[in-house]
Write a structure and sequence with these properties.
Blueprint: E1 7-12, E2 15-20, H1 22-26, H2 32-43, E3 50-59, E4 64-73, H3 82-102
Antiparallel strand pairs: 1-2, 2-4, 3-4
């Protein structure tokens, strides 16, 4: 078995995207405030961005899993900057995960 990856590059409908396996590492969905913070960070560098926070169910005869992912669809104009943007998104994800871990009841 391989270790899950927090952030990776992908492509959907011919457009580049960055995928965050948020739930695997955070154990929860990303909040609206966290998504807004990600958008603000990316909009400092891009003209537009689309962020999708999704909950998917993966099922077969033996396993049932709920997957919480955040997908950042990049404009074609972001070409050549994907690695830098992936680093920004990964930094955001790690900050979000760490913030919630440090909150005590």
């Amino acid at each position: 078995m391989t270790d899950p990856t927090l952030v990776f590059a992908s492509e959907r409908d011919g457009k580049p995207e960055i995928v965050v396996n948020f739930g695997v590492f955070a154990g929860r969905q990303a909040t609206h405030a966290e998504i807004s913070r990600l958008a603000q960070t990316l909009l400092e560098r891009l003209e537009a961005v689309e962020i999708i926070a999704e909950q998917r169910f993966e099922l077969d005869d033996e396993v049932e899993a709920t997957v919480h992912q955040v997908r950042v669809e990049l404009p074609l104009s972001a070409g050549g900057h994907e690695q830098f943007l992936m680093e920004l998104v990964e930094s955001w994800a790690l900050d979000c995960i760490e913030e919630r871990r440090s909150i005590t009841p």
